[in-house]
Amino acid sequence: MSTATKTFSILAADKLAKEGLDWIESQPDATLADHAGIDEKQLAEIIGQHDAVIVRSGVNITAEVLRNPGSLKVIARAGVGVDNIDLAAATEKGILVVNTAEASTLTTAEHAFALLLATARQIGPACKTLAAGGWDRSKFKGRQLAGKTLGVVGFGRIGQAVAERALAFEMDVLAFDPFLNAETAMDGRVKVIRDFKDLVPKVDMITFHVPLNDHTRGMLNLEVMKTARPHLIVINAARGGVVDENDLVTALDEGIIAAAGFDVFTTEPPAADHPLRDHPKALVTPHLGASTVEAQQAVSIDAAKSALAYLRGEGIKGAVNAGGIRVDLSPIQAAYADLIDRMASLIGPMITRGICNVTLELRGSELTSAASTLERTALTRLLGDRLDSPVNLINVSALARDRSITCKTVTSEVDTPGGTQATLVVEGPRDAVDTATHPDDLTRRIVGRVYDDLRPRVVEINGYHMDMIPRGDMILLQNEDRPGMIGMVGSVMGEAGINIADMTISRRASSEGNVTALMLLKVDAAPEPKVLEQVSTCAGILKAAAVKLPSITAG
Ligand SMILES: NC(=O)C1=CN([C@@H]2O[C@H](COP(=O)(O)OP(=O)(O)OC[C@H]3O[C@@H](n4cnc5c(N)ncnc54)[C@H](O)[C@@H]3O)[C@@H](O)[C@H]2O)C=CC1
Ligand SMILES: O=C(O)CCC(=O)C(=O)O
């Protein structure tokens, strides 16, 4: 029996299928707070008390909702579209956003296809007539799909699933997707059209499966509709606004477009007097694309599992704003993440004039797949020690960008003779050179390695070579290389009651022939600032800094 304590609180802020909620409750390390139907104001008040929040499209996670994120670490969207989540605000606060992209693909494709069939056969108005007591067979002559040409706009998961179904119905399929760099798709069965405006006049039916953004908003408008065949049927089960609704109503009224099947609206729910609600040529559903028993079970379970996996450090699935971060690192990658964090801590105090470029060089095939995570680990330490706002793997790249700090990771799959290796180079802005700063001091370089014992080693700092395990309280001293320096430092430490547990010394000659040394002291207690001040003013000491690193338990 598990003895794990309940540590992660998961908030369900939308109506989710019971299966996902039951799964959360069955987990020994999770508690569920079901607040389906909560409004934004209430959500803002409680969201920070939870580690994760799961939503569908019924609630908006705005910047205001995320103003005091408290413990919140992950927002899981049980579904695909994340337009109800302020991604920039989540990223800025270091909150991971995940979705469950695969789980509702077939269901949504089926709904779009159902709208297509029903619109082509006028099922909606025919049903209404019958319900009202009528029986009009001549009025509702439909159109057959077989032999017609369908335009699929957005050839991602859902677009392709719709195309597959259209082909099975013996339709010709044309696709438009600017991110599809091919002449044809699906083994040559689908022709790819390069320009959306070329697609519209060629098709009898058109269906949209794109996200809503500045490029897709209003992409089908009156001007483009006027180039269409007059019998064009328009299906939108993607996002309201991709087809301009006002223009569509005009086009339907004026016979420019034959009919429309719509599942999504610019404002949901649409106003009571929205002209598409009761338009004789429109078949409308209230955003039901993903609403099947199967899809809702799947998205609910997938969202819950992704949220908890991230909180447990098991991995990131379906990340929307994580840019390649992994938490499921292999032992060697995890050891490098720890080493790089220590390396950044060690050179941090030497960076006195700001940061403009950070370069991480990774050698070794095993490190390549963790490159983004390792780069962000270095940045998180370098910036986290300097910024007031919380910095973590999610928000650190955006924070660096905001500050015009350039970050680059160079990976090489060729192992060095000594094995894998990480080199971190941090450069300050050139215009920061003043009389007290030598240009060489603007670049800080540290090299580390992890051997088979998985313990972190630093093998070089700014050209001083060594083999040192970075841990605990450390004092870094750069000094002139002359007799008496070690004794002098020892007596200052002794007078301050600080025991030196270990010492590493490395020497280096400058291009002018001046020899200096780097002394790294491992001490049993952190020095008071006044002790550091005292040692830094001793004759022959060029620089002094103290660093506190985590201890090492492994090995
Ligand atoms: N009605 C409903 O209940 C549901 C609606 N959706 C909507 O369906 C959309 C598609 O979902 P998936 O296929 O899973 O996403 P996806 O990311 O697999 O596919 C979207 C495709 O759109 C393409 N695209 C992007 N910009 C484009 C542009 N300007 N013109 C043409 N193509 C462009 C992308 O390259 C991509 O291939 C989602 O964005 C979501 O808004 C998703 C699930 C349920
Ligand atoms: O039913 C829902 O939650 C909305 C589905 C949807 O639009 C999506 O997953 O993007």
UniProtKB/TrEMBL annotation:
Its EC number is 1.1.1.95. One of its GO terms (biological process) is L-serine biosynthetic process. CDD domains: ACT_3PGDH-xct, PGDH_4. The keyword Lipid biosynthesis does not apply. It comes from the Bacteria. SUPFAM superfamilies: ACT-like, Formate/glycerate dehydrogenase catalytic domain-like, NAD(P)-binding Rossmann-fold domains, Serine metabolism enzymes domain. It catalyses: (R)-2-hydroxyglutarate + NAD(+) = 2-oxoglutarate + NADH + H(+); (2R)-3-phosphoglycerate + NAD(+) = 3-phosphooxypyruvate + NADH + H(+). Pathway: Amino-acid biosynthesis; L-serine biosynthesis; L-serine from 3-phospho-D-glycerate: step 1/3. The gene is serA_2. Keywords: Amino-acid biosynthesis, NAD, Oxidoreductase, Serine biosynthesis. PROSITE patterns: ACT (PS51671), D_2_HYDROXYACID_DH_1 (PS00065). GO terms for molecular function: NAD binding; phosphoglycerate dehydrogenase activity. InterPro entries: ACT-like_dom_sf, ACT_dom, ASB_dom_sf, D-2-hydroxyacid_DH, D-isomer_2_OHA_DH_cat_dom, D-isomer_DH_CS1, D-isomer_DH_NAD-bd, NAD(P)-bd_dom_sf. It is an enzyme of class 1 (oxidoreductase). Catalyzes the reversible oxidation of 3-phospho-D-glycerate to 3-phosphonooxypyruvate, the first step of the phosphorylated L-serine biosynthesis pathway. Also catalyzes the reversible oxidation of 2-hydroxyglutarate to 2-oxoglutarate. Residues 474-555 form the ACT domain. This is D-3-phosphoglycerate dehydrogenase. Pfam families: 2-Hacid_dh, 2-Hacid_dh_C, ACT, PGDH_inter. It comes from Mucisphaera calidilacus. Belongs to the D-isomer specific 2-hydroxyacid dehydrogenase family.
